[in-house]
Amino acid sequence: MPAWAEGVVDPAVRLESVNGVLRAALPGNDPAITFYRDVGGAHFQERSRVGYAMTTLDTSVYHGYLAGIRPADLNAVIVDVGGGDGRNALPWLEWGYRRLVVIDPAGAALERLRAAIAGRDPQWLDRVLLIEADARTLPLRSNVAARIFAIEALAYLNEDYGSGVRECARVMAADGRLLLADRDYEGALLTRLFYGGGIAGMLAQGDTRDVVDGNADCSVRSRCFTFDELTREIEHAGLRIVASYGVSAMSLVLGYLRNTGRITPEDDSRLPEVHRLLAGLGREGAMRRSHVIIAEHTGA
After folding, report:
1. At what angle do helices 31-39 and 107-120 cross, to 10 degrees?
2. Are strands 145-151 and 77-81 parallel, antiparallel or unpaired?
3. pTM of the entire structure?
4. Splitting the chain (300 residues) into consecutive groups of 10 residues, what average pLDDT does each group show?
5. CA 236 to CA 210: how far, in whole Å?
């Protein structure tokens, strides 16, 4: 554990170090944790190598939002909740930040991230703390994070979503910022239409806020939100919204077209233009795949 981590980790929480990852006790009866531990996490780094995959298109947009909330102090504590194998963590190391915490319940994903960091620059390992833990009980001291973000992660807590937001608020410093991103209700309906049973699947999901990922043999439930619903969750945690953006549903459409062979190799040359278009749609468009909200403490 890096020396700086002693001022960040909650000393009351028992953590065991295994393969360079600190590990806290996890609930044994949570289906989402079981699902992601069984599959080794979300494997975002692997999926992001495919140019028109939805993951790749969305990641560039998320990185733009993260760049917009960077604190001036490179020693500020940055916390990535549900960070998996590091698609949103690595930019912070590239930007020069020296105290980065990545938390995820899938230890295998964190081990892959550690290997990726070691391959890029072994000295970066002293600047990152990897913790296998549950987002409902973050093993961190209160008020330590200058920036904390949870990108499409807390929704897998389902009925405990509010607990995850409150934990982020607890860990965030008085003058800190939280970036929270989770799927939009209508965007989730569009996903179900394309990938989960057509019209019948979309209508089956229509009266709920449940989203089912995976397949018939191995699936996991999570939540989606209207903007007002997500706003209420944030306000219940004692936070106020200072900015709201999104990730355009166009990335979902483009990913579907790629899967059905309607995007050709020749389209790869247009990817930089597509990324710029999606960045603009995220800030100005109304057709959202996910919400992106930046919040602070109400007393800030």
Report:
1. 40
2. parallel
3. 0.96
4. 95 96 93 91 82 93 98 98 96 98 97 96 97 98 98 97 98 98 97 91 92 80 96 98 98 94 93 97 96 93
5. 21
CA angle in degrees (0–180, nearest 5) for 101-106-110: 45
- Polymer length of the chain: 300
Domains of the chain: 3-297 (3.40.50.150)
Task: Fill in the DSSP letter of residue 288.
Answer: E
Q: Which of 31, 248, 284 lies closest to 158 in space, CA to CA?
A: 31
Matching residue, tokens 């749609």: 281
The amino acid sitting at 248 is S
Radius of gyration of the chain (CA): 18
Q: How many CB atoms lie within 10 A of CB 280?
A: 12
- pLDDT at residue number 127: 98
SS (H, E, C) 90-131: HHHHHCCCCEEEEEECCHHHHHHHHHHHHHHCHHHHHHEEEE
Tell me which amino acid residue 18 is.
V
Across the chain, how many H-helices and E-strands are there?
A: 11, 11
Between CA 159 and CA 143 the distance in angstroms is 25
Task: Write a three-state SS string for 169-215.
Answer: HHHEEEEEEEEEEEEEHHHHHHHHHHHCCHHHHHHHHHCCCEEEEEC
Q: What is the C-alpha separation between 284 and 295, in angstroms, rounded?
A: 19
